[in-house]
Design a protein that fits this description.
254 residues, alpha/beta, seven-stranded parallel sheet
């Protein structure tokens, strides 16, 4: 993928991985538009990058996706890169059903349904371009689950599978489909109650972004970054061993 001269739309672009990608694409001379649920966060973020635009919206709301599409198709009809990055991570313990709460399906609504609806809405615009790129953000946990966050991991496995199918279905169109699978990255993702009382190795955000931009230039369509490469390989060769490494509690691996 050429990293300059694009019009790039990034969901969840006001912080974390989305913010890092927005900054990197902006610095390479691309027109960048970011979305997110918190208008103030988007406003503050874009102040640091003259020319970057924003649109407050929630990808779990279909009507808001349609509003975003109308805005983009009118103001930025040459959109040629969509990065489906918006996502949330929760810690659900199904051994304690009473603790699951009202937000049980939030990860599915945002991480999967939101991504699918964004893709459906923007594919017609992407397909109008001579060349365009759809980038879906999955996770190393798409290959091997972290049992403390079962729904998040299942949503990322769904994104992995969906992206493979989209790549096949769109192979004869102008749209190139890329999957980016981050490892653990030092962001606010997962900073909610119920998480592990120990820290997994985390890649600094700036290091992750540097590796990602380099990987995007490689021309490959599935991009596991850092430890995600190990999880992908381990899921195929020694799944039980890697499951126990990722979930170091006593008991039989699934």
């Amino acid at each position: 993928m050429n990293l300059t001269g694009h019009t790039v739309l990034i969901t969840g672009g006001g912080s974390g991985i989305g913010g890092g990608l927005a900054k990197a694409f902006h610095e390479r001379g691309n027109k960048v538009i970011i979305t997110g649920r918190r208008k103030k966060v988007l406003q503050e973020f874009t102040k640091g990058f003259p020319g970057m635009d924003y649109f407050p919206m929630d990808v779990s709301e279909e009507k808001e996706i349609q509003k975003l599409f109308k805005f983009i198709s009118k103001k930025y009809p040459t959109l040629d890169v969509l990065i489906n990055n918006a996502g949330v991570m929760r810690w659900h313990d199904f051994s304690k059903p009473e603790s699951l709460g009202d937000n049980l399906l939030e990860e599915i609504d945002i991480n999967v349904k939101g991504l699918i609806r964004m893709t459906e809405a923007f594919l017609p615009l992407l397909m109008k371009q001579t060349e365009s790129t759809l980038i879906n953000i999955s996770s190393g946990l798409a290959y091997m689950p972290l049992a403390m966050s079962p729904i998040y991991c299942s949503t990322k496995a769904a994104v992995h599978s969906l992206t493979m199918s989209l790549r096949y279905q769109l192979r004869n169109t102008s749209v190139k489909v890329i999957e980016l699978a981050p490892p653990g990255v030092k962001t606010d993702l997962g900073k909610t109650p119920g998480g592990p009382d120990f820290e997994y190795p985390m890649l600094p955000l700036d290091k992750f972004i540097a590796l990602t931009m380099q990987a995007l230039e490689s021309g490959k369509t599935e991009l596991p970054i850092g430890q995600s490469k190990m999880l992908k390989l381990g899921s195929r060769l020694l799944p039980s061993v890697f499951f126990n490494m990722l979930n170091p509690q006593k008991g039989r691996a699934v």
